[in-house]
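Renewal narrative, Specific Aim 1. Our central claim is that a sequence can be written position by position from structural information alone. The example that follows is taken directly from our test logs and has not been curated for this report. It begins with the structure tokens describing the chain, in the order in which they were read.
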């Protein structure tokens, strides 16, 4: 991730999915999923899932060879296989070289008992996908099964019912995906999620999708309104955390690090998850859990990614991706000074009250 002086990092602050400069192990536990989101690029059929022993080996390898860092559990939907999530959590908790463990989920596998268990995991950051008002959430996050015109799993209703517990989780973040079809309602959907009680946000415009000019204009306007809402909240001393302020990434959307795919192969990025980029899997593969790569091989492969994406992604899609990325980066750059001011105010008042200050 980012290197160089803190000043460089500040200038390169992008808001895209990434870490705080720590190494990342990205585990694609499974590619299976019980939703079919309209913007999801992941190939879901025809792949095995990892097993608990592979997960333990991957975490041990990451710590021994790469010094540890953050472990990210992705899919597909990881909670389709709770035993695999538990294996990852247990291995990560055991090893002090694992700093944080991130679990990204569509929420359908959550219930009160599991949330209670997850709340006790000291290293866990739970990231739940919710896209806004019920109509937009349901429009984008389509269920896998429809029986007699009725959806078998309504992700919005499921998560809405869990909100009292989700609000109390020590580190639960909501990812609001903004698709071209919902860009005009981005700020309304953000406000709805805040009304539900979410206060830790990860904003995710739809990457690698075609965006029309008017949709891009809606996205920029939506981000401007969201930015005003956030600054107002900070000025009034409200708690509002925006994860995008603390993330850096060399490629839009896809994660870079030690990526273990669901078949045990190892890559420098999870770009090969996408059906349109599956041909890259052979190119990005640098080893497997049985034949792990050196650190140098992984870094060399990561350095090739921007060129590979340039050569593989059709020009109009690449152009859209750069445009949505620029819109998100502009929001982040605009918000960062306000965040620093809010943090300074909060610390000053914490000192005045004799209590420790915290992050926004
Ligand atoms: S929940 Fe995630 S993996 Fe499943 S279809 Fe939606 S975006 Fe894709």
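The sequence written for that structure reads:
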């Amino acid at each position: 991730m980012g290197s160089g002086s803190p000043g460089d990092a500040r200038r390169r602050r992008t808001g895209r999915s990434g870490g705080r400069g720590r190494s990342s192990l990205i585990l694609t536990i499974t590619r299976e999923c019980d939703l079919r989101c309209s913007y999801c690029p992941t190939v879901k059929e025809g792949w095995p899932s990892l097993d608990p022993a592979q997960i333990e080996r991957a975490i041990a390898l990451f710590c021994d060879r790469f010094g540890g860092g953050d472990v990210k559990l992705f899919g597909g939907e990881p909670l389709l296989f709770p035993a695999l999530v538990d294996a990852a959590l247990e291995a990560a908790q055991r090893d002090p070289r694992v700093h944080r463990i991130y679990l990204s989920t569509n929420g359908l596998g959550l219930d009160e008992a599991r949330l209670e268990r997850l709340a006790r995991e000291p290293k866990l950051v739970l990231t739940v996908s919710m896209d806004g008002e019920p109509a937009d959430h349901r429009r984008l996050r389509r269920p896998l099964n429809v029986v007699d015109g009725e959806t078998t799993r309504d992700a919005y209703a499921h998560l809405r019912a869990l909100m009292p517990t989700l609000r109390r989780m020590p580190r639960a973040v909501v990812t609001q995906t903004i698709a071209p079809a919902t860009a005009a309602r981005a700020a309304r959907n953000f406000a709805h999620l805040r009304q539900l009680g979410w206060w830790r946000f990860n904003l995710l415009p739809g990457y690698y999708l075609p965006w029309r000019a008017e949709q891009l204009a809606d996205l920029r306007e939506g981000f401007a309104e969201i930015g005003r809402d956030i600054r107002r909240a900070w000025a009034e001393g409200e708690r509002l955390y925006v994860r995008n302020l603390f993330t850096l990434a060399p490629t839009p959307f896809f994660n870079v690090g030690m990526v273990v795919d669901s078949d045990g192969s190892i890559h420098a990025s999870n770009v090969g998850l996408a059906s349109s980029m599956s041909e890259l899997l052979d190119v990005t593969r640098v080893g497997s859990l049985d034949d792990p790569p050196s650190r140098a091989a992984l870094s060399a492969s990561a350095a090739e990614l921007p060129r590979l994406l340039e050569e593989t992604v059709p020009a109009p899609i690449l152009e859209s991706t750069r445009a949505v990325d620029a819109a998100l980066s502009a929001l982040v750059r605009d918000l960062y000074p306000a965040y620093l001011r809010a943090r300074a105010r909060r610390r000053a008042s914490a000192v005045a009250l004799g209590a420790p200050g915290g992050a926004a």
